[in-house]
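Regression report. Comparing outputs from two consecutive submissions.

Submission 1:
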Amino acid sequence: MNQYSILKRLSAALVGASLMGAISLKASPVTVAEVGIGANETVYIDSSSLGNNQHVYAGVVDLLVNGIATNGFCIDPWHWSVSGNLPYTMESLDLAPKPPGPMGPAAALQIEQLWAQFYSPSISNIVAAAMQIEIWQIVDAAVSGGTFHLDSVDHDSVAVYAELATMASFLSSANGSTAVADLVAVSSGTGPGQDYVIQRVPDAGATVALLGLGLLGILGFRKKLRA
């Protein structure tokens, strides 16, 4: 292997390690505001804390996380959303939602697989609704002390139920090689408001700093090779 090949592989490894370090999650405070609803269908649900036959949106939730527009889904069918900027914590998905959660790692993995397979910025109302319902069902099955049940879908019900069946079939056959999305939770802890799942966004400052350290390491190694 020549010097160029060694440097090329080492560079890729260090950059990869830098990026992984930059996006490793530590629970951190954020400000979250729910500002609207994206692709969705309206549905009726039963919730052990909200009551029965509640008419709610099922779909993409438009959020501002530290002022940045972010798409997410609710992982908390036991609390109503609250308007305004609220203090939240960004944390590992398996640690959310707040009681009756958390969901644990197995449910978090299913949501990451579901997102990777079915979510896109142009997601349709039908797929978004089915994805939200499936997320609620995954979380509900993983926790004790709270229950959730889908009663009915207002519109496009046949298509939504068909999509739900497709998602359930996909998850039943998912394995260790199934693609996963890089997701985190934003949780209000014991405070008001729902908890949400969003895609992880690396901190730009940390990423640049770690990449800089990685490049310094590459340069140092290159000097040693030349010596």
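Submission 2:
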Amino acid sequence: MNGKCVRIMGWARSFGSAKESCESINAKVAEPMTKCDSDLLQYYLQIRGNVNQDAYIGVRYLGNGTLKYVSDETNVPFRYWNNDQSEEELSQNNSCVHLHGHNPKGLWHKKSCKSGMLFICETLLKAF
């Protein structure tokens, strides 16, 4: 995907554990740079057969509309929120962003980073 190799990890982990798992294979939790990247990650999740499962991506919501990439703490240049989130989900600060398995697009949700879910790792192709 755009010069990156992505791998959907098929076991549920908290976000911290997911991050460590990706780092153990010289990768990071996938960080979509565009809405198209997020849609592609969603597509890979669905064709892998995980249509009803959620998967972490490497984005954190810090509150007040602030989104940061996990690997280097830079600001995420776009928003791609799903409109059907509950008020509780929307009010959570310092939460982790994930793809919702049943969405046809790579729209984002946020949830506690302690929640167990699948996750997607990425690395540059030249690393393989």
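Expected: both submissions complete independently.
Actual: both completed, but the second showed a warning that disappeared on reload.
Relevant detail on submission 2: The longest helix spans residues 35-47.
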